[in-house]
Write a structure and sequence with these properties.
Elements: H1 2-27, H2 38-66
Helix pairs in contact: 1-2
Length: 81
């Protein structure tokens, strides 16, 4: 189970790091051939960074909610009425 959890966190982390590299390359004018334009490369890199960080943050928040480690602001309420 721990190996699966580690792989679930490492994969988006690698994607976010690659996104940072794409944004940096777009800012310094290093163009990768599989993108059609340097602006598309920068936007794709930004989406990779945001997506990777959002996934890792959501994973940690879900784990903390399950273990009752969150404060009152992050506790999930039941709206089943």
């Amino acid at each position: 189970m721990r190996l699966i959890a580690l792989l679930l966190l490492v994969t988006p982390g690698i994607l976010a790091v690659y996104g940072i590299k794409l944004v940096r390359d777009a800012l310094f004018g290093e163009f990768h051939q599989y993108f059609f334009h340097i602006a598309i490369q920068g936007i794709a890199g930004l989406l990779f960074v945001i997506g990777g960080l959002a996934f890792i943050g959501g994973f940690i928040l879900h784990r903390d909610r399950k273990r009752n480690l969150t404060k009152g602001r992050f506790k999930q309420t039941n709206h089943s009425e």
